[in-house]
């Protein structure tokens, strides 16, 4: 891989955290930096240390790629949209006495469990700093579950046929918009690294 143990160790650490094509590109840059430092300094150890100092430690490099990842951006978007859509549904249920409606307890529990798992997955995608794959998988799971939750809400409204209201229209529009955001994010999270 590289001509020095420090460089090889650094690239192995990055390979554990980032997708292979990204690591291959980073390796090219790090090796070029090492070669430049070897020409300038002539000492392999000093050249490796100088190249790594210029390049950045594995935590910094990994965090930068994770911050720029489409998975992280999808998680942020869905987390911001969540409370807005939730407020719309909450206001609709309160004003239409939805709490006393015929929504079966198992459906309420299922929705609560799914919402909790969505929040957990999306927060994981935001907080993870060291493993790109974890961020991608957490965001993918969160986006798919968001689509399921909003589809269940739309299905529940269709079966209960509540009285039409502006709040119901807002809640329905919010859920449809959030489904579209989630569905739009899923192909990117599957195909992008």
UniProtKB/TrEMBL annotation:
Annotated keywords: Membrane, Transmembrane, Transmembrane helix
The protein's name in its UniProt record: DUF1700 domain-containing protein
Segments crossing the lipid bilayer: 75-99, 105-125, 137-160, 166-186
Domain of life of the source: Bacteria
